[in-house]
Amino acid sequence: MHTIHILGLGAGDLLQLPLGVYRTLKEADPLYLRTAEHPVVKELETEGLRYESFDAIYEKHDDFAPVYQEIAETLIALAENGPVYYAVPGHPLVAEQTVQFLIEAEQAGRCTLSIAGGQSFLDAIFGALRIDPIEGFRLVDGTGLDSNRLNMTDHLLIAQVYDQFSASEVKLSLMEKYPDDYPVTIVTAAGAASERLRTVPLHALDRSAEIDNLTTVYVPPVTEQTQRLKEWQTFRDIIAKLRSPEGCPWDREQTHESLRPYLLEEAHELLQAIEEEDDEAIAEELGDVLLQVFLHAQIGQDSGYFQLEDILEAISDKMIRRHPHVFGDVEVASAGEVVDNWQAIKQQEKPASESLLDGQDRSSSSLLTSYNYQKKAAKVGFTWKDADGAWAKFEEELQEFKDEVANGSKDQQLDEFGDLLFTLVNLARFYGLSPEQAMVQANRKFRTRFLHVERRAKEGGHTFSDYTLDQLDSFWNEAKAGHGEDENHETR
């Protein structure tokens, strides 16, 4: 197993090539190039440079990964017969995937490497753009750009933008976060005598004629907060500002306890949007729910108890831990097995409780607490075998409530009415219904229909007391038949 000597051709012309690398290139035999499309190669050809390039491999594959993998494997095979010299553009350790594959092979004991640097294209880029990297920059591969991983306050350099198609892909990814007219700079042949810079609006990136294999796209930091509204950190900064001494008096006064009703309200509005299959409303209501999460996180940070990172760590750890079939080596055959594993892992995480009902209370909803209690009891067999038993119990509790209404005290009536509601929750469980959601829908339906009754009463120029119950009930039946539903939609 002989050594693969890796050389960097630099980012510019022959004058910028280190003397040691120049001499090695002149004497290298055999010499392989990832690509011959480089200014240094053109100049060395006039001095009789002999080489073999891997440009033909690019024509064999649709993606870059198999190209780079094949080049690396070819070099490893060639090194079995003697030392091999391999030259790449720029610096071998900057944005050079073939070298990364070779390093992995070296770590696996399949080859040995010797790396000699040339000037990185980053040096030339920083000089051309007149930017200081200490301000924060990120170098990314344009062939696999993920806008969700970009920080809009960084200097962003995008390599591997080599033609109009790749420029189009980069443009579409960037437009998921950046404004369509945001200025971006196309840098071609940075550091060489033919260096060119051209600034265009983002939407015109793929229509530039100055794009080739020596192109890097530069996206400057976004300084205006109003242009960074798709950044998580921007939203976090907004909430922190609202809670600051210079912020909003109302937001500063809020506590975990005072925000509880708003979280419930926003959650129900989200459920309503989901039920109505209104995508725009779902996005808006998810934002309102997210606002509550960020407010609670900021309150925790202001109090010194926890912050957003602690929340993220806790939920990320839980998702990884409870999905061993995704993040581990556990195998499952169905969604049912996933649920069983989830519950088993959850039991291991929780300290042993004295009762199955421990942890099932929901202070925000007595209906949900009742549902949770009955579901837990049913899991150990404490329930009727079918809905018939639940119906019989409902009839029994209904009669007992009627008896107490006729002869009992208020406390006895309240007790029996609670039992009646409890049996209704049990019926909902048997039929796979959410009693909480059912009550939400019933309240919304009543509001919509009553608004129609109010409007009809006003149309007659009278007050409610001027109408008989039968007349008001006729208005109600109109709403029930569907009249007035659309015009009342905006009031929901």
UniProtKB/TrEMBL annotation:
The keyword Ligase does not apply. It comes from the Bacteria. It is an enzyme of class 3 (hydrolase). SUPFAM superfamilies: all-alpha NTP pyrophosphatases, Tetrapyrrole methylase. GO terms for molecular function: methyltransferase activity; nucleoside triphosphate diphosphatase activity. The keyword Hydrolase applies. Keywords: Hydrolase. Residues 254-327, 395-453 form the NTP pyrophosphohydrolase MazG-like domain. Its EC number is 3.6.1.9. One of its GO terms (biological process) is response to stress. It holds the Pfam family MazG. Residues 3-205 form the Tetrapyrrole methylase domain. InterPro entries: 4pyrrol_Mease (IPR000878), 4pyrrol_Methylase_sf (IPR035996), 4pyrrole_Mease_sub1 (IPR014777), MazG-like_dom (IPR004518), NTP-PPase_MazG-like_C (IPR048011), NTP-PPase_MazG-like_N (IPR048015), NTP_PyrPHydrolase_MazG (IPR011551), Tetrapyrrole_Mease/MazG_pred (IPR024180). NCBIfam families: mazG, PRK09562.1. This is Nucleoside triphosphate pyrophosphohydrolase. The gene is mazG.
